[in-house]
């Protein structure tokens, strides 16, 4: 009661007790503090009470669920309606459905439509702003923030719920959506300097049929890899480490990387790309990285022979190790620290061997390694267990050339590869049908190249379609007609050559299912007169062919024409002389001109050979020049050395002569000394004086003179003494 009185007293103006104003003020402070503390405590308790009903999950951008959730969120209208944004740009595949949607929505038209990828600005909610999304009867509070220490973006999801199921369900849904979106893509991961893997890119799948190898090779590799992935139990039952290595070796540009890409696409594997020559690579880091590669993935080591900065064989490695054992422990530690600081690649062969199949090595992964120089690899690295299957890649054969040609050009009847699967090319029927087509090489004319629809998008859509037939397929009437109309334009071709009928008849024929073998865009009016044909120039090989490039451009071939052109193409291609990459380069030059590509193959081979000879000559010339310069330098050095040696010899000789002279002088002196020794005299007072022959007299004279001087001095002294005596006596007298 007293306490209450005490508290209330100041409020009623001190009427109750009549205390001083200072005491009243203090009472106010105490009351204020108490109220504020109570407020804070209760608010904290309340928020803790509320938070106790929340479940919170954090997703770091380093982890896959972050990508799944971001993908899921990007499709949520609430996220898109967010009122606060930050922008970012990224490359986007214009063929992806999202990109297409966005294109439709966008108000500004883009000039990039002809390119497959371009950058677009995407909006994402700003950091630290919370968005509420209603999901399956729950309100999710989602915040994007930056982790203060790791500087990683973190997504925080909070929800009021009694069990974790809602969050698990959310992650599962996000994952499904993400996988559905990337079903036509493979994901690439790359190693970082901290011993972890980072999601780095997605790539479109590559059809296995687009890689042209010797018959059966890729099929065997794929079958082996597939079989391996399904045999975990078989391996564990026999105690064999569940690992498989593939070594692809051979000339550059022969399809090693392409095959790996196609296998990963075929088996739907994520690819973990490891650069062994990365500056931060070390034995420990490699072991750490390979130890955490998930099961059922592919690890790719490219250019294995170029991996080591220290040694390429185990002997060298051991030598390095033995020298380093001589270092003290302290030295080693210092060296290690220095290496780490300098980011120096310290990977050794033994480190790689251990990481590949040591005790700590991961299991269940496919290892693919490529090299251009298998002979440079240590046998231990190549041995089964580490590299179980070897595939050699050589220069292209004729059969490969033909298959590549067929893959390159669209065939009306052939299927085309689109969005990760083969679709029937129904360009002429005005639609597309998805179909399960065996893509293990049995497809003819499969290609990603332009269908009629694509031709339209290339700016030829408004052109009338006309058909062209082979000469042998045309009736006499058609031949006549053709020769009277546009034969001047097309010329007459022998086998594989093309005949054009009038645009009218072609248009009608192209609609009939039995018509034309070769469908091609019609000639624009400006080109339908001979004057529009580019004038033949002797330097332009194509212009000398009996057809014009414009007419041959962007054609869809029928099976028969394709067969003929492919055979012609292969005929002109020499076996085992050019790589597939070179061949692809040539075909790319004529990517919409199958006839030109087939007809000019021989000319290309000739020009390539000439180029090769020219390059070889230039290389030989450069080598000869280098050798000549080296020889001249050597000769110059030799001459300079000889000159130096001669000068040295000369000075040596001079020195020797001087030495001799000196010796002679010394000898003479000694002789003189000896002689003068014999002539030495003993002076009267007993001192022996050695005098030289010439100087003797002078010395003697000087000696005599000195003696004389001494005598005189003696006399003088005596005189002085006498005079002093005299002076003293005179002084005495004076006194
Ligand atoms: N056998 C092949 N079939 C189809 N395309 C090929 C083939 N070989 C090479 N190419 C093409 O040539 C280019 C280079 O091929 P790729 O990178 O696969 O060669 P590589 O053997 O890995 O070369 P490197 O040894 O220089 O890395 C690619 O664009 C690929 O499409």
Automatic annotation (TrEMBL):
Topology relative to the membrane: Single-pass membrane protein
Q: Reaction catalysed? A: ATP + H2O = ADP + phosphate + H(+)
Please list where the region (Disordered) is annotated: 90-113, 311-339, 500-544, 614-735
Where would you say this protein principally sits, based on its record? Answer: mitochondrion
Gene Ontology MF term list: ATP binding; ATP hydrolysis activity
Cytoplasm as a keyword of this entry, yes or no, is: no
Q: Which SMART domains match?
A: AAA (SM00382), BCS1_N (SM01024)
* Domain AAA+ ATPase, first and last residues per copy: 242-397
Where does the record place Basic and acidic residues bias?
A: 312-339, 614-684, 692-708
Where do Low complexity bias regions lie?
500-518
Q: Where is the BCS1 N-terminal domain?
A: 29-211
Alphabetically sorted, this entry's keywords are: ATP-binding, Hydrolase, Membrane, Mitochondrion, Mitochondrion inner membrane, Nucleotide-binding, Transmembrane, Transmembrane helix
Taxonomy, superkingdom: Eukaryota
**Which cellular component terms (GO) are annotated to the entry?**
mitochondrial inner membrane
Acidic residues biased stretches: 709-735
Protein's cellular compartments:
Mitochondrion inner membrane
Which family is this sequence assigned to?
Answer: Belongs to the AAA ATPase family. BCS1 subfamily.
Please report the name of this protein according to its UniProt entry. Answer: P-loop containing nucleoside triphosphate hydrolase protein
Q: Which organism is it from?
A: Pleurotus ostreatus (Oyster mushroom)
Q: What is the lineage of its organism?
A: Eukaryota, Fungi, Dikarya, Basidiomycota, Agaricomycotina
């Amino acid at each position: 009661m007293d306490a209450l009185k005490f508290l209330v007293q100041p409020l009623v103006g001190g009427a109750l007790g009549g205390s001083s104003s200072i005491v009243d003020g203090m009472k106010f402070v105490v009351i204020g503090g108490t109220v504020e503390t109570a407020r804070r405590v209760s608010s904290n308790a309340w928020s803790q009470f509320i938070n106790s009903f929340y479940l919170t999950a954090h997703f770091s951008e380093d982890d896959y669920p972050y990508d799944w959730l971001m993908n899921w969120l990007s499709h949520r209208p609430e996220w898109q309606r967010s009122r606060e944004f930050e922008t970012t740009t990224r490359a986007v595949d214009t063929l992806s459905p999202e990109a297409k949607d966005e294109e439709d929505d966008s108000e500004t038209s883009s000039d990039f439509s002809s390119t497959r990828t371009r950058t677009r600005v995407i909006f994402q909610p700003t950091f630290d702003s919370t968005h509420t999304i209603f999901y399956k009867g729950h309100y999710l509070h989602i915040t994007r923030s930056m982790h203060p220490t790791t500087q990683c973006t973190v997504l925080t999801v909070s929800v009021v719920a009694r069990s974790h199921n809602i969050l698990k369900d959310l992650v599962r849904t996000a994952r499904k959506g993400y996988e559905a979106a990337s079903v036509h893509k493979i994901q690439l991961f790359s190693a970082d300097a901290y011993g972890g893997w980072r999601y780095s890119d997605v790539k479109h799948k590559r059809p296995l049929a687009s890689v042209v190898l010797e018959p059966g090779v890729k099929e065997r590799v794929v079958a082996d890899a597939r079989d391996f992935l399904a045999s975990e139990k078989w391996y564990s039952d026999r105690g064999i480490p569940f690992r498989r290595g593939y070594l692809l070796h051979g000339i550059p540009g022969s399809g090693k990387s392409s095959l790996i890409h196609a296998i990963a696409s075929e088996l739907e594997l994520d690819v973990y790309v490891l650069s062994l020559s990365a500056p931060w690579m070390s034995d420990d880091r490699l072991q750490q990285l390979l130890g955490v590669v998930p099961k059922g993935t592919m690890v790719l080591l490219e250019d294995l022979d170029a991996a080591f900065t220290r040694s390429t064989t185990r002997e060298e490695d051991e030598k390095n190790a033995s020298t380093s054992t001589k270092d003290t422990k302290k030295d080693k530690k210092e060296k290690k620290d220095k290496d780490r600081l300098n980011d120096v690649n310290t990977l050794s062969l033994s480190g790689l061997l251990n990481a590949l199949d040591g005790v700590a090595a991961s299991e269940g992964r496919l290892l693919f390694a490529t090299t251009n120089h298998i002979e440079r690899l240590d046998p231990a690295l190549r041995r089964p267990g580490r590299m179980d299957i070897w595939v050699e890649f050589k220069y292209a054969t004729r059969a490969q050339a033909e298959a590549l040609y067929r893959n390159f050009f669209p065939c009306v009847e052939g299927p085309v590869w689109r969005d990760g699967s083969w679709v029937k090319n129904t360009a002429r029927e005005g639609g597309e049908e998805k179909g399960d087509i065996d893509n293990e090489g049995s497809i003819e004319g499969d290609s990603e190249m332009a269908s009629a629809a694509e031709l339209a998008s290339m700016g030829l859509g408004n052109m009338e379609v006309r058909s062209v037939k082979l000469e042998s397929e045309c009736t006499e009437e058609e031949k006549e007609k053709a020769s009277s109309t546009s034969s001047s334009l097309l010329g007459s071709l022998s086998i594989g050559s093309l005949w054009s009928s009038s645009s009218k008849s072609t248009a009608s024929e192209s609609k009939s299912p039995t018509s034309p073998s070769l469908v091609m865009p019609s000639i624009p009016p400006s080109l339908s007169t001979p004057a529009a044909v580019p004038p033949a120039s002797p330097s332009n090989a194509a212009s000398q062919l009996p057809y014009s490039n414009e007419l041959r451009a962007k054609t869809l071939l029928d099976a028969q024409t394709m067969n003929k052109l492919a055979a012609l193409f292969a005929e002109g291609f020499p076996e085992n002389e050019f790589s597939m990459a070179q061949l692809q380069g040539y075909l790319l030059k004529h990517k919409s001109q199958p006839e030109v590509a087939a007809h000019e193959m021989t000319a290309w081979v000739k020009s390539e050979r000439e180029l090769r000879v020219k390059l070889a000559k230039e290389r030989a010339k450069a080598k000869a020049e280098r050798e000549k310069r080296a020889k001249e330098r050597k000769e110059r050095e030799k001459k300079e050395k000889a000159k130096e040696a001669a000068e040295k010899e000369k000075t040596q000789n001079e020195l020797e002569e001087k030495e001799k002279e000196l010796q002679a002088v010394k000898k003479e002196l000694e002789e003189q000394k000896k002689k003068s020794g014999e002539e030495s005299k003993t002076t009267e007072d007993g001192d022996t004086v050695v005098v030289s022959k010439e100087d003797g007299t002078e010395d003697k004279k000087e000696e005599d003179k000195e003696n004389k001087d001494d005598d005189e001095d003696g006399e003088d002294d005596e005189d002085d003494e006498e005079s002093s005596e005299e002076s003293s006596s005179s002084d005495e007298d004076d006194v």
